[in-house]
């Protein structure tokens, strides 16, 4: 039985802990945290009959209340997963976001999906109709982790239908390493070698704080979130973690089959600068959007990719006009998906 407790986001949100046992990377006992949006006067998850499971990216956790509320208005129960060592799940003495194998996340993703389906009343027979089904939504690094997991889910005996997943929405997924081409060749060879023997060694200089400043309301943005869980300059990148990411990229580039239709939302352009300018609010400051476009076809199944003019890296944290456009594109695709499932 799942026990829900009050969440930091207030009365409309609850959380439950997902124990994961001993950390395979040697940092003690780990757990993940599942959050649900459940307003006191709103319908239950079972009354919704379908749900969203959201997965965040690197230096991130779930705080996007407007996203939960939007899906709720569209008829979806909303759940979000803070992965091990991230956000609500980070424990003293642990390295934020540190894993050396992305398949480690299968444990909490499987369990979260099981809990969500139990809440929404799903079963394998109903999944193909959209009733009792789950839509996966993921951002940035989550947009790499989730497709890799879904490719493995599809290969299981019960497949995607048995899992009850009917679609994916990827928000600026991290499909390749940004920067000069040598980082993707000799740089990746170096990351692999160093990551094997010194997995917690920090890579290079600290990340820029420009993206964080564009978001947080105490700087230039409009969003409020916990700076201990999502610092403006990001958490340090370690060689072991980046090695796992590059292994994930390589697997993606060989081609996946996620088994469900996907919507990919991204900014129309990228912008690189360590100084804050007006451009910082109208482009992806984190990833190279041309790489997202290049590798989108590696997901398998039906893929729709939509560039959003003026969007930030997290398109749902963009300024008002591109944010509104992103939600419009999302809703139109959901209408198509629901029609496709009938």
TrEMBL record:
Gene Ontology MF term list: hydrolase activity
Domain Serine aminopeptidase S33: 49-275
UniProt keyword Plastid present: no
Superkingdom of the organism of origin: Bacteria
The entry's keywords: Hydrolase
Pfam family, one: Hydrolase_4
Claim: Membrane is one of the keywords in the record: no
Protein name: Lysophospholipase, alpha-beta hydrolase superfamily
Organism the protein comes from: Rhodococcus tukisamuensis
